[in-house]
Amino acid sequence: QNCFVCGESGATITCQGTDCDRSFHFPCAVEGECVTQYLSQYSSFCPEHRPEQQVEAAPEEDTTCPICLEPVGDRKSYGTPVSRSLRASHLHLVFLLQGQAACAGIFCFQCPLCRNRETFLAEMLLVGIRVPIR
């Protein structure tokens, strides 16, 4: 299979979307804005079929990430999931939250601002944050 992100052969991950035949390499998934859910059964989705958070609030024009204080843009996107427990606080996905999840593990991973665990964990698993069990 050819990777729809880089075009090279050897892509082994296939989108789980209905009637979708897109394949990609695992390292290309982040670049291609694909989502891999690390639940009991791993599921991967291309950008067209990835699960979206059901939130109405888009970030305001000058919104910054509450963790690193960098601007997050003025629209909802793959890179800025919303923490429902924070009532529309937008957080950076790939580097900040994934790094925090890898260090904390499933029993300590929590919202960095309000420290909510249950709701925050469920939302982050939906958008593809891998939280190791330790």
Automatic annotation (TrEMBL):
Which domain of life does this protein belong to? Eukaryota
User: Is Iron-sulfur found in the keyword set?
Assistant: no
Show where the PHD-type domain sits.
1-50
Identify the Pfam families for this entry. zf-HC5HC2H
InterPro entries per UniProt: EPHD, PHD-type_Zinc_Finger, Znf_PHD, Znf_RING/FYVE/PHD
For this UniProt entry, the molecular function terms from Gene Ontology, in alphabetical order, are: zinc ion binding
Q: What is this protein's record name?
A: G2/M phase-specific E3 ubiquitin-protein ligase
The species this protein was found in: Tauraco erythrolophus
